[in-house]
Amino acid sequence: MTRSSLPLLRRLAAGVAFFLGATAGRASEGTVLAKPGGVPLAADLPRETAVLTRPPQVPPPIARRHPAKVIVNLEVVELTKRMADGVEYTFWTYGGEVPGLFIRVREGDVVEFHLNNHPSSKVPHNIDLHAVTGPGGGAASTFTAPGHSSQFTFTALNSGLYVYHCATAPVPMHIANGMYGLILVEPRDGLPPVDREYYVMQGDFYTQGAHGEPGLQIFDNLKAIDERPTYILFNGEVGALVGDRALQAKVGEKVRLYFGVGGPNVTSSFHVIGEIFDTVYSEGGMGRTQTNVQTTMVPAGGSTIVDFKVDVPGTLVLVDHSLSRAFNKGAIGMIKVSGPETPVIYSGKEVDEVYLGEASDAGAASSRREAELVAKRAEVIASNVEIGNITREIQLERGKKVYLTSCFACHMATGEGLPGVFPPLAKSDYLQADKTRAIRNVTKGLSGPITVNGKAYNNIMPPQVLDDDQVANVLTYVMNSWGNDYGVVTRDDVKRARAGNP
Ligand SMILES: [Cu+2]
Predict the structure, then answer these.
(1) Which of 129, 202, 205 is nearest to 165 (CA)?
(2) What percent of the chain has pLDDT over 70?
(3) Contact in structure between 497 and 471 (CB atoms under 8 Å)
(4) How far, in Å, is the centroid of ligand 1 from the Cα of 107?
(5) How far is 228 from 320, CA to CA, in rounded Å?
(6) What is the pLDDT of residue 9?
(7) In angstroms, rounded to a whole number, what is the distance separating the alpha carbons of residues 331 and 241?
(8) How many angstroms separate the alpha carbon of residue 258 from the centre of ligand 1?
(9) What spacing in Å lies between the alpha carbon of 180 and ligand 1's midpoint?
């Protein structure tokens, strides 16, 4: 290499670097890096990680005006939390929330999607994003066992507000447990600006206990199949958007709601009491389809975007205008609008408690207090020996009646069973060893080889169709009769065992 050629090489290198820089710069405007088909080369797009938000918050509008490679990390978590005052439920969630975390991308973005299933999960999950063009909307690529992760990539070809949900069998059960959320694919030029954006989703829930029955509630598959929801909720909880947790706005502001219905079954007659939607993007499409709308229909697995300016102070009430769902099943939320009165538009008093009934602030406070007292009473009763003994005696008598109806034909009135055919329950070491297993033997049935008191049995016990109380009572009877002294089975024990928890 000669001395004089060195500076030339340097100049050449600088030129190449300049050329690459220019290409990257222009690529970021989405003009250069296109294959003949017009689709950008994902590898060359600028990368960013999506900001996901918990409901009712929405990620900020996308400011960039070029496509990007967007990384989405979403974790599935199964967790027990409040459904109503005193009522708990084991929700299956995307990101620990019902609905799942809000995802916001831009039309033309290439989305690298990572679905992680937390190691503590009991079952596998996946995700079907309605924004995806491709098999199962991603479900085919994301079936993920507990403790594992899946990844797939899609291009957000169509702008719109889309539902995502779990599509693992039994699908209605995964959705009824809370596995849905929204992904917004903003149009290339964004949406018209507003002052506040909120995220609300409606879902129907099915519990074995009646509406309001305290304790940990279990999913009721028959109610789900019959479409008889116990709860219909905004954001997965009675009162998620009520009182201190109401949405906020100020007089004169423009509010936008991203509203979706997870289902699994019930459509929404979505309405805001005291407002008129200035603009509706029906069914989550991007055409502004209507102005001055009172109520908009949102299907299960569908969405809508509504914009409205709030003109007067007070409380606006979000409802499913199929109103028993609002006043009796929980589908009620609030927007508290603060600011100066505008008597020309509206002169009058607040939405009052006579109208809102138990959903009013006073009603919500009263429900909370009642739940506290019920829990306290249960504690006092449990710690009182005399009441405890009487309770057990009542349980024994009730359990005996169940036994005489459902069990004695095989296990005999004496609990001795039939040698080689029906195992004994009297002095059974198998029964004594594991209470949860005994509950499952009754609720799910039992077959295959077992050994009881050293003798082998290999027969079939059919599942017993009994409610939680009946199972608790009959097992308490069996475990305290014929010389057995194996302790008490409570309704909560049965609930936990049915839910698959130890
Ligand atoms: Cu799932």
Answers:
(1) 129
(2) 89
(3) no
(4) 27
(5) 16
(6) 40
(7) 10
(8) 23
(9) 9
Neighbours of 89 (CB within 10 A): 23
Cα 315 to Cα 389: distance, rounded to the nearest angstrom: 51
Query: How much distance in Å is there from the Cα of 79 to the middle of ligand 1?
Result: 13
Q: Ligand 1 centroid to 158 CA: how many Å? A: 25
- Residues 406/445, Cβ–Cβ less than 8 Å: no
pLDDT band at 18 (very low <50, low <70, confident <90, very high): very low
How far does residue 146's CA lie from ligand 1's centre (Å)? 11
Q: How far is the CA of 126 from the centre of ligand 1 (A)?
A: 6
Beta bridge partners of residue 463, listed in sequence order: none
Distance 127 CA to ligand 1 centre (A): 8
pLDDT (tens digit per residue) in 49-75: 999 999 999 999 999 999 999 999 999
Q: Are 90 and 131 in contact (CB under 8 A)?
A: no
- Give the pLDDT of residue 41: 60
* Interval between CA 392 and ligand 1 midpoint (Å): 39
- Strand residues in 264-364 grouped as ranges (E): 268-273, 277-281, 290-293, 295-298, 302-309, 314-320, 332-338
Rounded CA-CA distance 202/315 in Å is 20
Provide CB contacts within 8 A for 242, sequence distance 6+: 332, 333, 334, 359, 361, 364
Residue 498 Cα to ligand 1 middle (Å): 18
